[in-house]
Design goal:
Two copies of one chain form a homodimer.
Chain A: E1 3-7, H1 13-25, E2 30-34, E3 39-42, E4 48-51, E5 60-63, H2 76-82, H3 84-92, E6 98-101, H4 105-111, E7 119-120, H5 127-132, E8 136-137, E9 141-145, E10 149-152, H6 157-170, H7 172-182, E11 189-192
Parallel strand pairs in A: 1-2, 1-5, 5-6, 6-10, 7-8, 9-11
Antiparallel strand pairs in A: 3-4, 9-10
């Protein structure tokens, strides 16, 4: 299962790199890619990254946030306004095993129409925007797992998203091993749809 | 106070980038620099970064770890073996306000002779090596603050190092603000020398 983390100018460094490192540590096939093709990117706080590949046709896409609170043109806000990345995510969605976001990356999934009527979360500073997009914002959850749509809270919640994915796919022992290697104590609540109540809805 | 985070091939991504983002969020003058000059670097898990500047003459240097457990040539182990970065750190030390490390970056401070007889910590997988280098390893501490020498535990402990620095220099409210922005709940114990017992020793 190939996972691509879709980076763009102004992405928040830890939103992208924390799940990358955690999933790499788990031995997963995860790649940092350019949402708009290969090249050099400058992240929200100034780190410069080089990505050799652009967003392709992965099994899973993870979308970081960045700059939403400041309505930054370089960042998730600008990406949502311009629309190219959301359109790409919408086109990919039917073929994905799941889509995931960290922080205000959820607003790019929202712009792609993937969160409407779905339980989700985002950084505290964007929860009202996510709610207005038609998502059911789950207050108090650090990670929301709706089957084929996973969203995490702000910045460092990406670690807990990744560790939850490792637990879900590889089991608790695997997740505990990664957490130990990262010396990260897992935090917060993972919200999951009650399987006896309703199945996770497929992506549109 | 200019802070340089000294990156090298094989550095652990989060060791370097987590304190960078946290201190940037605090408004600090912090820079990712190349320990061996400007250029392109490949971090331990595969992320490629570009740094425009090499390690200069900062007020503070922060050293990440990476690859120590695997005795990787590309990483902290190889850097300690080759000795150029430790020599540079030793030469800088007398002019620094403080030196800090995340994870096995402590082993590069050790190779520079900066931890001998000093309380310190590192990633769990390197504590024995750090002890053998003559440091007093403080078990149970996530961050060890010995005044002008600060060391943190593995990987994500760099967040708590950075937040401790913000608290120490800018106060608790500032640290709480950064933690809230990062949606990080601070963890673990910060060990500080008891000021009534003995002063922190100066760097050599």
């Amino acid at each position: 299962m190939r996972i691509e983390i879709a980076l763009y100018d102004g992405f928040d460094e830890l939103d992208g790199i924390a799940p990358y490192e955690a999933l790499r540590t788990a031995g997963w096939d995860v790649h940092l890619v350019g949402a708009h093709g290969p090249g050099e990117l400058r992240a929200a706080h100034g780190a410069q990254l080089v990505v050799d590949e652009g967003l392709g046709d992965p099994g899973v896409v993870i979308v970081p946030g960045g700059g939403w609170g400041e309505r930054a043109q370089r960042g998730a806000w600008g990406e949502a306004q311009r629309g190219e990345l959301p359109r790409r995510l919408a086109a990919l969605a039917p073929r994905l095993r799941f889509a995931a976001s960290v922080c205000t990356g959820a607003m790019l999934l929202a712009a792609a129409g993937l969160t409407r009527g779905r339980p989700a979360t985002t950084h505290a500073n964007a929860k009202e925007d996510l709610r207005r997009s038609g998502a059911e914002v789950i207050d108090g959850a650090r990670v929301v797992d709706d089957g084929d749509l996973l969203t995490a809270g702000g910045v460092t919640a990406g670690l807990d998203l990744a560790l939850w994915l490792v637990e879900r796919e590889d089991g608790e022992d695997a997740a505990a091993g990664v957490a130990a290697e990262l010396e990260h104590e897992r935090r917060g609540t993972v919200w999951r749809r009650d399987a006896t109540r309703a199945p996770a809805r497929p992506l549109p």
